[in-house]
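Extended Data, panel c. Modelled sequence:
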Amino acid sequence: RGIHTLLGSDASSRDSNVAVKRDLGTLFKPLMEEHARFLFNFVLTFHMNSNSKGGSAQKVENLPVTKPKLEARQFKSHTMDNVRVRKMCDELLQLEDPTHKMADETAKGKPWMRTLQVSRGKHIHSIRMNNNPDVTIGGYFIISQMLGYIRGLVSLDLSSNELKGAEARVLALGLKYNKSIQDLCLKENSIGTEGATSLADALKHNDSLLFLDLRMNNIRGPGVCVLTDAMTSNTCLTQLDLRWNYTGESSDYVEQALLDLQAFCGRNLKEALARTRAEMDQEKLKQQAGEGDNGAKEVSEASTDVSAHNVTNGLTNGHSEGEHEGDAPSDRPPQIGGIPMEMAIPRPSELKASSSDMSGSEHLMNDDHVIGRLEVTILSAKNLPQVIWTSGKDGEFLGLPQAYCVFQCNKQSHKTNIMKKDWNPRWDYSCTMDVRSVWNVCAVQVKHSKTLSRTHKEDSMIGTANLPVGAVINWRGVSKSSDGSWRAYHRPIAAGRGSMYSVCKGKDRDGNITDVFDSSELAAKAYDEGAARKDLDKAVLNFSGEAEFIGQHVKEELFPLAGEDGVDVIGVQAGVNSSVKLRLKYFDLTSNYLEINLEKAACLPRMDAGLGSCDAYCVLCFGDYSYKSRVVRNSLDPCFKQTFRVQVPNNMADTKLQVQVWDWDRFDDDDHMGDAEVNVSLDSILSGTLNGGYGVKKADDPGDDYLKNAKGEKSIIHLQFAYFPAKVTPNAEP
């Protein structure tokens, strides 16, 4: 009863008035057909003229791309607030359904709608409510409820209204079930990545929207990836405008997402044309078989009953109203706005130029295509908020959450166990998922269950976190350019919104200072040098850290949780965000991986005279990789328990692994204690002979003297090796 409660409507009267609904569907058919035809032809012309080199573009120059005359209302800037929005929605529903009970008692029975400036008996098909920032989330909630019922509104403009992620979330709830909106403009707002995520969820279910304008909305790279991921399920949208949105510094996978997003929109166009042309060819065959003038006349009369919803879905789903997958195709000739498809749309062969940019993305339409796999470990959550419990005796009260996680990626889903009441639950749950593209989005949802035995449909959401697979594949701050080179970009941690990224410079293979590198590892080193210099102890680096897994195609860190409205979740500790800790390991099907596990060191000498102990850490050098372990304070037998991951070629030659042992000092330079060397070969890894302890030689002694403690015991470094071969040889189909 959401909209009936807010707008004073009676659900029973609306549900019982079936005749009114049927009349509305018939009334709005011609207009929605014409408007859908306009949007379709506009997008078609745009695609063909922008992608072709002559020829095909001329095929559509004579198309009648004329916007239909809509009964529109445009509200002046800064004239709308929540009260007027409520009256507007009330009047829109009253125009379509006279049985709708208006909340304003003074407006009942009057022939003139004061807010819409229209008399009863007419209908409004387009609303322009741009430049009205005084409307808050309550007003958009009323609009969202109205969208679930309205049947004649085809165009809605909410640009420049200072919309945030919370408002976009509310609008997405109504758009999810709307059946009439074909053109939605949300440009020049600030919905951000959170709002884009909400709209992506609506696009998975909406089957009427043809044109969506999201320009200048501060949508970053993850938001673009979420929208592209949603387009794998959407078969209706033909144009999604994302211009003038800054996508972030690591934008190579975002660039691929934008290209594939355009390919998905082009797919909707191409498949619609192919289906409508096939139906038209079938109709021609029937006419040639000699149906006669009477049959042709009946087909002509039946063609005028094509609904607007069928036009929209006819361009996407290939079924008319009342048809199902198993039903036979309709005998009516396909039309758009009363014009036969034969006259309005070129043949699919004429789209060759316009769809040529899709050739590289055809594999995305195949659900069996896999480029790699993702090994996910949901470790723990930190500082979760209080949740609402219900009890028959005490009613509602706040208490500790019983949390569990749901992890989704590429239409695959896994769920952890439910942890008993805890602010900081730990799951240590692992699963593996297939990856189809670098822009596939990993979505983790933290929920609260009222029982420990099982989950429930009505379990409340605590927070969510989204991460594109490309962010796992890329080194932090590193992006690949179109020419194949690599660059690194850094922005200080304390920098505010709108701060510029600086280009990181470092040494190339020849020792020259440059900002363009021939490998991602060298660019990652340049990023680490710049970040350590500017962020000091707070720097988050690629080749060092406190995480258990560090290295190539792996990411282990805390991800902040956001609520369903896009706002950060604040935990039970005041002012501190709730977060979930994940470990994501990506396995490319054509790559080999070597994992070096630094377990511990033993029998180290005393380096700190005052405490008689040692603050040890290790530096592992292997080819272009140079990793630094965590510092273990005040221990002569430090336990590191860190794994460092490298990517190795198929024909890996014998390579030397050097493990440097250092003593950390707060005020003085760190002391180099000694080195351990290991000759790594593929045969020795597979045989397991490399696993074990290795003696540490003194750093200041050119001979073979080993590092020893005060008791004369030799210092030892314990290592373990694991090799993961490629599943597919390079240049072969997975």
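The first strand starts at residue 72 and ends at 74. This feature is highlighted in the accompanying rendering.
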